[in-house]
């Protein structure tokens, strides 16, 4: 695995480097403290994952994501001290695959990296799952309802896939967290709420369907019958 760390704090760079070296059999680590340089390095170094801080000395992490997404779909994990929901939603909407808030543990970092890399493979491109007037194409991360095409991120695609797999039943927070990240870490429920809220907005604005994803307080989520 090759990882690009974009972070201007040497202590955090060292912390992540030690975590990757201890938890991965073979890892090649590239580092920079510049968002501008990160976008340039990406084309040359071809990393498997980008670990990105938001508070960089030149351009911020949000602008860095915009530049990367112009030419690459490489998994991006934001690692930031910013814990506000607006920052998390903004990062995910720009194309980040995950958002980890500082401080964080080495095991959580490794689990998130493994999860985003695992989500990149293993789904046949031609697979179609139908649900009423909707269809889900996990191989291309696409959900279509009433003729409206809704592009999904990899994480959103997994969430929709799990809910469809358990259609008619409530899927617990723990089940969803394990499907997305491989474990139910302490703040997983709050992170899931952000993803679900964004999914609802996407579906409601594009397909004019309200209430497709139902909340069950303290338990989890389910799909409405359509």
Describe this structure in words.
This protein has 226 residues and is an alpha/beta fold. It has helices spanning 10-23, 35-45, 61-69, 85-94, 106-118, 154-165, 173-181, 188-207, and strands spanning 2-6, 28-32, 49-52, 76-80, 98-101, 129-131, 134-137, 142-145, 148-151, 171-172, 213-216, 220-223. The chain has a five-stranded parallel sheet with strand order 2-1-3-4-5, with helices on both faces. Strands 6-7-8-9 form a four-stranded antiparallel sheet, covered by helices on one side. The mean pLDDT is 88. The chain has two domains: 2-118, Response regulator (Rossmann fold); 129-223, Arc Repressor Mutant, subunit A (Orthogonal Bundle). Helix 1 (10-23) crosses helix 5.
Helix-strand pattern, N to C? Answer: EHEHEHEHEHEEEEHEHHEE
| Helix content estimate | 40-55%
Mean pLDDT: 88
How many strands?
12
Cross-sheet strand order for the largest sheet:
2-1-3-4-5
Number of helices: 8
How would you characterize the largest beta sheet?
A: 5 strands, parallel
- In the residues, how many domains can be counted? 2
Uncertain segments are: none
CATH architecture of the largest domain: 3-Layer(aba) Sandwich
Gross geometry: globular
Span between N and C termini? 42 Å
CA-atom Rg in angstroms: 18 Å
Write out the CATH superfamily name of the largest domain: Response regulator
Q: What CATH first level of the largest domain would be assigned?
A: Alpha Beta
Structural class based on helices, strands and sheet pairing: alpha/beta
The CATH topology name of the largest domain reads Rossmann fold
